[in-house]
Amino acid sequence: MSTVDPVTPVLTKRWLSPRSWSIQTYEQLEGYTALRKALTATPEQIVQMVKDSGLRGRGGAGFPSGLKWSFMPPNFDKPHYLVINADEGEPGTCKDIPLMMADPHSLIEGCVIASYAMRANYCFIYVRGEVLHCIRRLNQAVAEAKAAGYLGKDILGSGYDLEIVVHAGAGAYICGEETALLDSLEGRRGQPRLKPPFPAAAGLYAAPTTVNNVETIASVPYIINGGAEWFRKMGTEKSPGPKIYSISGHVERPGQYEAPLGTTLRQLLEMAGGMKDGIPLKFWTPGGSSTPMFTAEHLDVPLDFEGAVEAGSILGTTAVMVFNETVSVPWAVMKWTQFYKHESCGKCTPCREGTYWLVQILERMVAGNGTEEDIDTLLDICDNVLGRSFCALGDGAVSPITSGIQYFRDEFLALCEKNRAKNRKPALAGAN
Ligand SMILES: Cc1cc2nc3c(=O)[nH]c(=O)nc-3n(C[C@H](O)[C@H](O)[C@H](O)COP(=O)(O)O)c2cc1C
Ligand code: SF4
């Protein structure tokens, strides 16, 4: 018998329907009913409902969404903006693009409800430019929604106006950091801004702005229709609701698996058909490359915001990358670090210089030219990057290294031993 709880899909319930992305399919399957409901409530009532639901941001940090919305000022000195973070650039993270491809109207409906709740008349969806197919699909969905009266002027006769603009980014991981994203959206080079002021006070064009992840906003119509209590029945007390876990790597059936927050890797592996070819699990990330890795010891860690932290990592974006025993940890760590070095925006010294030196050392070690002292140097550099960088990219960059050495120091040592053996002088023949 399966140990996995029966899961009724919420966020992915339309994904397998024919032409799931079209407005016709969406409307047949409850689409835009939440919007009709929301427009009969006041913006304050919607913010309160989202607060009551316990929805937390799905972009990585898990910040309570209703609380974030309530930071938007009540006055109208300046326009208010909602910005959707659809940059999705972290290695392993691949849930938002499938969501937008399969069910773009759930995001659009969520955008209209959230914008109404925050009194925004403009909403921007910032998508990375590489995913042209996704941008086309979103543009099509926006046009369909507009033609049907769900967007534009006087939405469904409510007197409320909203325009949605789909913006193509140029594909930099740092542009997923919310303030760098805002700079990029304004046409500048994407680099993080000093906070405060936070976006709710001075965001896009220095006006009140809320930045939310795709999955966060796509969850909103279900909360409006199902109610806060219903939403809280899924997941855990502090991390309620359904979640899309993206499972990649050495499993039989990689893909997107929707499950309540708090589901364990053991349960997810069962859904994904187990380890590929039965080769045992070695290490895995709970939420992308910036989340400290776990090992086979962590199969039963509840993957919610609290459970992941208690076990020594973070939930991140629930991008579960699974690696079997054939993969070298120092090699994987080197590949991730090369990514962070490439994506470091260069604004602050610890991250810009640190990632450069970390790559130099890791490449040397993986090539078999490292020394035992290199391990200490790696940890020392990590210590100077973690908590000392301008934004969370720096913190994320050191996670694979520190956790890799924590659990697999022997493998790093073995590389150094190889080097020592290589350099050992051959014994002179006949010497005694
Ligand atoms: C380097 C970096 C990259 C990020 N990339 C993304 C991203 O692609 N998508 C996303 O939603 N959040 C990303 N974030 C988190 C955002 O800064 C922000 O917390 C999030 O968009 C807020 O939305 P939420 O409250 O709905 O989670 C990133 C953060 C950092 C530091
Ligand atoms: S931590 Fe890295 S990405 Fe963030 S501001 Fe500093 S250099 Fe840029």
UniProtKB/TrEMBL annotation:
It is an enzyme of class 7 (translocase). The keyword Iron-sulfur applies. The keyword NAD applies. Transmembrane segments: none annotated. It catalyses: a quinone + NADH + 5 H(+)(in) = a quinol + NAD(+) + 4 H(+)(out). Residues 330-375 form the NADH-ubiquinone oxidoreductase 51kDa subunit iron-sulphur binding domain. Keywords: 4Fe-4S, Flavoprotein, FMN, Iron, Iron-sulfur, Metal-binding, NAD, Quinone, Translocase. It holds the Pfam family Complex1_51K. Its cofactor is [4Fe-4S] cluster; FMN. It comes from the Bacteria. Its EC number is 7.1.1.-. NDH-1 shuttles electrons from NADH, via FMN and iron-sulfur (Fe-S) centers, to quinones in the respiratory chain. Belongs to the complex I 51 kDa subunit family. This is NADH-quinone oxidoreductase subunit F.
